[in-house]
Write a structure and sequence with these properties.
By secondary structure, this protein is mainly α. It has helices spanning 14-36, 44-67, 83-104, 123-144, 150-170. Helix 2 runs antiparallel to helix 4 (123-144), helix 3 (83-104) packs antiparallel against helix 5 (150-170) and helix 4 packs antiparallel against helix 5.
């Protein structure tokens, strides 16, 4: 007697079963590794905001040094460098920090308390610290531009250009 094939039951093929089992085993592992990737690195603008506030404090200290040098040091030479110019540069760096903080929104670091005082120093050493700070800010900002969105790249690029311009004015 010959058996008639059951139209409902089909022979099981191994390939689809193996693919299904492989997917069932691999899917949780892949999902777990992808979930681990969701931790994003902090926004690079945060470091620039902190640097801008730090630069403003350095520049404020330099402005005080150029305004009233410590006892025993020669009076600053009359020339392009003045406390007023340094105060303007400090204000620009604070504005940079504020504008980048607006871009960051809720992720922005808090502004440091104003009025932090650093001891007066030699005007030439203070100016060197300002020039170093502006150069570092320019290079750090310029290095970030290629990886940012257009809007952020425009903002950070203008910060880099401003730092370069102020540095050249102070030289």
């Amino acid at each position: 007697m010959t058996r008639s094939p059951n139209p409902v039951a089909r022979p099981v093929q191994r390939r689809p079963v193996l693919i299904g089992l492989t997917a069932a085993i691999a899917l949780p592992a892949v999902a777990g590794s992808v979930a681990g990737c969701s931790d994003e690195a902090p926004d690079p603008l945060i470091a620039l905001v902190n640097q801008a506030y730090s630069d403003a404090a350095v520049i404020d200290a330099a402005a005080r040094a150029w305004q009233t040098p410590p006892t025993g040091l020669p009076e600053p030479q009359a020339g392009p460098i003045s406390a007023e110019l340094l105060t303007a540069v400090s204000g620009a760096r604070r504005t940079h920090a504020e504008q980048m903080s607006k871009e960051l929104g809720d992720d922005a670091p808090p502004a440091p308390p104003s009025g932090q005082s650093t001891p007066a120093q030699d005007p030439k050493a203070a100016l060197a610290a300002v020039l170093n700070a502006l150069d570092a800010a320019r290079s750090n900002a310029a290095a970030l531009v290629p990886g940012l969105s257009r809007h952020q790249a425009a903002l950070v690029g203008s910060v880099a250009a401003c730092c370069a311009a102020y540095r050249s004015v102070l030289l």
